[in-house]
Amino acid sequence: MIMPHFWPMFWKEFIQMRRDRLSLAIMTALPVAQLLLFGYAIQTDVRHLPTVVFDESRTPESRDLIAAFENTGNFRLIGSVNGMPGLDQAIARGDAQAGIVVPYDYPRRLARGETATVQVIVDAADPLSSQSAIGAAAGVAQVRNLEILGRAARRAGVPIEARVRPRYNPGLRSPNYIVPGLVGVILTLTMVLITAMAIVRERERGTLEQLIVTPITKTELMLGKIAPYIGVGIVQMTAVLFVGRFVFDVPLTGNVLLLYLVALLFVVASLGYGLVISTLVRTQQQAIQLAFMFVLPNILLSGFMFPRQAMPTVFQWVGLALPLTYFLKVLRGILLKGVGIDALWREIAVLAGFAALLIVVAVRRFHKTLD
Amino acid sequence: MSEAPSPRAPAIETRDLTRRFGGLVAVDDLTLRIERGEVFGLLGPNGSGKTTTIRMLCGLLEPSEGWATIDGINVAGAPEQVKTRIGYMSQRFGLYEDLTVSENLTFYAGIYGLSGARRATRLDAVVDFLGLEGRLGQLVGQLSGGWKQRVALACALLHQPPVLFLDEPTAGVDPAARRNFWSAIHDLARRGTTVLVTTHYMDEAERCGRIAMMSGGRLIALGTPAEVAAQVGGGGKTLEDAFIILQERNE
């Protein structure tokens, strides 16, 4: 029989996993917390920015303009003020994050065909929320300009229109972007954290000494230890995809079976990283610290939250050493774009390479001695 | 010294066995020859090198110098072959406390490659030998020290090893349980198992066929308990007297 000691090891790990409350808590609470955090709390498309208005002209034209701002959905009017100091104060206190100032000469300049200005003041301390306000303000002005210029030129339509078609995520919804990535992040977090403690826990409890005087081989020991968690990873992924589909309306466009096959490779690669960590440390505490040090770049550099194209070259390289970077491409490719192996074979090959390499490194680094 | 077991070789043999940890010499030039079926005691205070010696004999630590053989097989040369021929109880309890007695036994049976009818026979045999019937469903973590030692011995005996290493097996175990444990050890020896046991207790040393006294990593006396006591010179000396005198002389 090939690897005769694998099954006893697998069975033992499985029983221990079932009885270990800490591991069970990590495996169930982490995905739930992450889903809630990233799915609900973290929304990158900022809408309904609280806004104060200082309308100096008080005319139908100015009210019309302010209504146009409100209609974009980016600005939520919370009140009007009677001067710049009032507006500044509202923004400084944080009551408002935007202010719209319509000068008294707005309707007159508009009527004369001169450039009429409207000021939009934005609290840019938070760039993400100010960005959408700035874009919306420019949009309001542009729509107005086209109307007025079109009338003046007596044209039926505008000369050029760029018709943007946002493919794969037409609503530009952030859950569509975040939830597939979350599958990868949750798997990385739990798989690496749990296996990082795998060997070192046996060392600390004194059970490793008894285990390594037996004829079990290093490979059987390592594979038997991680095998039960492959199942855990698949269950976690299923749960996140399920919630993503039915709670956050994330589409499952492509071949889900292919996704699960690639996920297997990714899970083994992550478990391999955890095992390598386990061979580097002497205590469980060190293992947890090292695991978190590994997880952080995964969240920041893999393209989960921030686009990799925007990163300095060095950090793009670091990202290439993380299995999650490749798995994210596969996740988004299959779930959102519906593409198959022909588009993703490079990423799949790299993941397979990672899985094999990391297991080999972990087995090589582990010695059946106490030195 | 080879990588194949030899029927005429002693059960355990060491030559100039030495282990250093940095500047500390834990075991210094140890030469021993232990025949099959012996109950051999390794005595000495804490830090005298007993545990390091056993760990080298089991392949858990590599010797800095010298060599050791089990049934004629070089431990450093073929550690995996040696591992099928030895049973080991570590000083610190090494079974899984979150598994039941029966789960630990089944696990170690699998790890020692037992399957099918042979596995069932061996499990029955060790459970019967150590009287574990009533404890099988209990979590090992909930057992008393004496019962834990019995389960550990059961796991170490599943594959019927010709050589058994017991590192302070009765530390923290009550006297009645110690007596039971030792009668089990003598049963095994009568059936041909070679037992190497370390201990602090002089009454246990008296039960060994031969003993070696270690101090500061060196062998300071070797022989039957009576011979070791006599080596100190003069009759009427007990093994305990001998132990203290030898140790003081060595310091």
Radius of gyration of chain A: 28 Å
Q: What's the SSE pattern of chain A? A: HHEHEHEHEHHHHHHHHHH
* Total count of helical runs of at least 4 residues of chain B: 9
Estimated share of beta-strand residues of chain B: 15-25%
Principal-axes geometry of chain A comes out as elongated
Helix-and-strand structural type of chain B: alpha/beta
Short recap of the structure:
The complex is a heterodimer of chains A (371) and B (251). With 371 residues, chain A is mainly alpha-helical.
How would you describe this structure to a colleague?
The complex is a heterodimer of chains A (371) and B (251). Chain A is mainly alpha-helical. Chain A has 15 helices and 4 strands. Chain B folds into 2 domains: 176 residues, P-loop containing nucleotide triphosphate hydrolases (Rossmann fold); 71 residues, no CATH class. Chain B contains 9 helices and 10 strands. A 6-stranded mixed sheet of chain B has the order 6-7-8-3-9-10, with helices on both faces. Chain B has 251 residues and is an alpha/beta fold. In chain B, 47% of the residues are buried.
List keywords for this structure.
heterodimer, A: 371 residues, mainly alpha, abc type-2 transporter like fold, 15 helices, 67% helix, elongated, B: alpha/beta, Rossmann fold, six-stranded mixed beta sheet, four-stranded antiparallel beta sheet, 24% strand, globular
